[in-house]
Amino acid sequence: MASTRFSPFELLLLKSRNQTDTAALLLLAWVAVSKGSLSPADRQRLGDMAGSLRHGHDHRLVLDVAEEQDLQAIQLAAEVLQRDRWGERALPFLSQAIELTVQDGNLAAASYHVLGFLADLLGVAPQRLKQLFLEVTGTQFACSEDPSRASYWQARERTWRQREQERQREQRDTHQQERASRQKRQAPPFGDKTLRALTILELDASATRSEIKRAYRRLAQAHHPDRFFSRGEGDVATASVRFQKIKKAYEYLMKDARFV
Prior knowledge:
Oligomer: single chain
Structural class: mainly alpha
CATH class of the largest domain: Mainly Alpha
Shape: rod-shaped
Distance between the termini: 87 Å
Radius of gyration: 39 Å
């Protein structure tokens, strides 16, 4: 009856001489499994590690549980391990986990995430994990994104929103340009009055609204009557006529919707 009430790992814990060591062995095996299936080298390494632990049962039974990826068993093992190995006391265990992940020289992204998860679970700060990883392997802990953390998905959502906003902005700009282009194609040809106004401002039919404004400011300044006051009444009168033409041409063109 008892065997039907407990999971295989719970039974191992009940029979274990040291539950902390049994939990540690399961989590180490889980680290190895996270790379894929257990290789012969992984099994040998885990067997060596099991020999130094005080669990009191066949370590292959623990490996079988790890290969089944039993999340409830992994959670239970983590809860057991937390009782005795927290913070700095968890570093020897994490060192063993790191050794397992790098022993074949091919460290998968999933292994980074598993190590980060275990460190977080055992109260080891990310910076301390990176330092420990460097001490054990001589290389940097390269993975900075951990999908098990909410911040990972929040950052991805922000990036997605920014890209979506940029896409919508580009789409609006494209629509505006297309609309302006259609309006320009559909606009009737300039009449004589418009062409004369453009000529007065020394522009052609391709002028834009901003070009008309710049031309007006330049010509209005050059032909303002006040500039000719010292030359006599004749020059002032001529400048006044010219200035009025420039002003009227500008005002006329500003009312034309085709100049956008």
